[in-house]
Specification:
By secondary structure, this protein is α+β, with helices and mostly antiparallel strands. The protein has helices at 8-15, 19-27, 44-53; strands spanning 5-7, 34-36, 39-43.
Length: 58
């Protein structure tokens, strides 16, 4: 079964950024986040949409 949500640490690895910067993006509400109890996760589909929306070409 494929994952439908990623942890913040997994997102940091996928985006090749530091874990602390990924958490900063969550605090700044830059990344799309779903709260499950006390846990914050990033839905895979919304992450893919966020990447497409925030990618630009010259």
């Amino acid at each position: 079964m494929d994952k439908i949500v990623y942890s913040i640490s997994e997102v940091a690895k996928l985006l090749d950024i530091s874990r602390s910067y990924a958490y900063q993006m969550v605090r700044d509400e830059t990344l799309p986040v779903l709260t499950l109890g006390r846990r914050k996760v990033v839905p895979k589909i919304q992450l893919e949409e966020w990447i497409q929306k925030n990618t630009y070409m010259k």
